[in-house]
Amino acid sequence: MSRRRRRTAPPLRTLATGTVLALLGALLTLLAPPAAAAPPAAPAPAVPAAAAGEVRGGDALYGGGFACTLGFNAVAGGVSYGIIPGHCATAGGSWAADVDGARVSVGVTAGYTFPGSDYGLVRYTNTSVSYPGEVRGSGGVPVDITGATDPQPGMTLCHYGRVTGYQCGRLQQVGVTVNYPGGVVYGLFRSDICSEPGDTGGPAFSGGRAVGIIVGSSGNCTTGGTTFYQPIRPILAAYGLTLP
């Protein structure tokens, strides 16, 4: 992609920029396909409804033959939404999730911004599924998210990716600019936590407060690496969202 796309989201507020970081394209977790395989040839068919189940931050969302990790659930005007990276939202118009052992349709892309910033929104349409404000934590055990906070250097940070699971470390830098193959993204923050392709979109939180979503990485979890995140508060403000 060589130009900025916007759908339905209002203009962003300008975010502070900092040191320009060039990431290796292969490590930018851009729409990584499901782990250990190319997009599956015969995935479980998506069906329009399912028995009551839940989809929470840290779960996988499938769209356009790819998978991203869901960041956080949010609400606006009584409607539930899921927050994902913008570069994920560009690939899928409709989304499915694994609920109670079946892959079911859960929603459609409601808007995205990428490049410039990197966030998108899924509007949930399957009312047979619940979308709690929790995210997955250690061992997949839910962590209740009670609000949002701005990233601060030195703060303790944890994130959850569908490939590497739950990890914690320190937030290192804010106001980071990243050169993606698809364009420049501003106003990100960076931690010393590693991540792998497929973790993109995962929730980053400090205690019970949402801080951001994974949008890219450098290095890996074998030799060490860092992860880059889109802050959560500008996303909430752009769409008028609140965390449930």
Task: Explain what you see.
The protein is mostly beta strands and 244 residues long. It has two domains: 115 residues, Trypsin-like serine proteases (Thrombin, subunit H, Beta Barrel); 78 residues, Trypsin-like serine proteases (Thrombin, subunit H), CATH 2.40.10.10. Helices cover 5% and strands 47% of the residues. The strands form five sheets. Strands 1, 6, 7, 8, 9 and 10 form a six-stranded antiparallel sheet that branches. Strand 8 and strand 9 form a beta hairpin. The N terminus is likely disordered. Belongs to the peptidase S1 family. InterPro entries: Pept_S1A_streptogrisin, Peptidase_S1_PA, Peptidase_S1_PA_chymotrypsin, Trypsin_dom. Keywords: Disulfide bond, Hydrolase, Protease, Serine protease, Signal.
- The total count of strands amounts to 20
**Element-by-element helix/strand order:** EEEEEEEHEEEEEEEEEEEEEH
Average pLDDT confidence is: 84
Largest sheet: 6 strands, antiparallel
CATH domain fold name of the largest domain: Thrombin, subunit H
Using only C-alpha atoms, the radius of gyration works out to 16 Å
User: What's the assembly state of these chains?
Assistant: single chain
Structural class designation: mainly beta
Number of helices: 2
Which CATH architecture of the largest domain?
Beta Barrel
InterPro entries: Pept_S1A_streptogrisin, Peptidase_S1_PA, Peptidase_S1_PA_chymotrypsin, Trypsin_dom
Family: Belongs to the peptidase S1 family.
Protein name: Peptidase S1 domain-containing protein
Keywords: Disulfide bond, Hydrolase, Protease, Serine protease, Signal
